[in-house]
């Protein structure tokens, strides 16, 4: 998720930058502090809403109640028309044409707030906004008017499902999100062999992409980021005429790719040295588990348990959330993830959850009560020894004060 989001952001920025004058850089100066309600300590310019949404959704998934101020921060990031930008440094200022609304951030916020409950007005406006910028092919791009891509379309499908919408009934020009996904599904055989492409290149060619395939499998299944193990079904590749078959084809591609490199995916970034791709491996685990391909999903999860600690620590809340989603999808305890407590590590990247706040308050009350009890018995003791002599009493009090 992190890698694909960075790529999508850079692509969108390049397009916007070519069409509009540069806006002032909203990055906080070294002297500015990030919002105390925000999870993560890195510049939120490109991923503030995204990582906050994933953090809150992951906490809810494991039964942790997020801090109220962190939820409120996310709610206040919404613009009046329902959309969310990647990050608004000053949410008291109305959104204008310089604010680039982000379908990925909007859809992620919907999934998080829908799971938390009590935010129907916010999620309703956000979904209306997403519907208003749906492309004629049925899909979504990163920003309004951008060419449809698998990742954006899939995360929006997850948002629709989260609020009880039927993705196949959300149409533009007679096309649903599933029509857009099927257009980006590669045929069986050859290099693609059932994978999904992120989007066509300038010549209309589709190129297999493991990250896009993981997203495409979830989208084709109508699932969001949080899934439970699905029922095992055939993963043999055949012509992708239905979303279910496209998901099966994508799953077969992912299983082959994971088996090729010791149960993990490799980075596909152009010009980069080949290296394990932890985030995309976690996404693949979720996608496979959602379809019921649990054997490979669990094998890849074991690899993540052994190898992802440094990556997660470097990438913060969104990375911990991805691992929690992967653990949850396979029925693994995220509090014992290869000996690590992912929940505790995620919580440590931001303000204390409400449960922790209540625990601290209870401890403080307990200490206070203990002090009160001690005070009562001290007073009784003083009264009992009063007959021994006033001098002894004052002496005892002076000694107690000196301790």
Set out the fold topology:
Blueprint: H1 2-19, H2 48-61, H3 68-76, H4 103-116, H5 120-132, H6 150-162, H7 177-183, H8 210-220, H9 243-260, H10 278-291, H11 294-307, H12 309-315, H13 317-329, H14 342-347, H15 354-385, H16 390-402
Structure description:
- This is Squalene cyclase C-terminal domain-containing protein.
- It comes from Streptomyces lomondensis.
- There is one protein chain.
- The chain has helices spanning 2-19, 48-61, 68-76, 103-116, 120-132, 150-162, 177-183, 210-220, 243-260, 278-291, 294-307, 309-315, 317-329, 342-347, 354-385, 390-402.
- With 403 residues, it is mostly helical.
- The chain folds into two domains: 2-352, Alpha/alpha barrel (Glycosyltransferase), CATH 1.50.10; 369-402, no CATH class.
- It is globular, with a radius of gyration of 26 Å.
- The protein starts with a helix and ends with a helix.
- Mean pLDDT is 84; it is low at 13-31, 357-366 and 369-403.
Produce a short descriptive summary:
The chain has 403 residues and is mainly α.
| Largest sheet report | none
| Strand proportion | under 5%
What would the CATH topology of the largest domain be? Answer: Glycosyltransferase
Rg of Cα set: 26 Å
Low-confidence segments, ≥5 residues, pLDDT <50? 13-31, 357-366, 369-403
Order of helices and strands: HHHHHHHHHHHHHHHH
Helix/strand-derived category reads mainly alpha
Keywords: Membrane, Metal-binding, Signal, Transmembrane, Transmembrane helix
InterPro entries: SQ_cyclase_C, Terpenoid_cyclase/PrenylTrfase
Protein name: Squalene cyclase C-terminal domain-containing protein
Pfam families: SQHop_cyclase_C (PF13243)
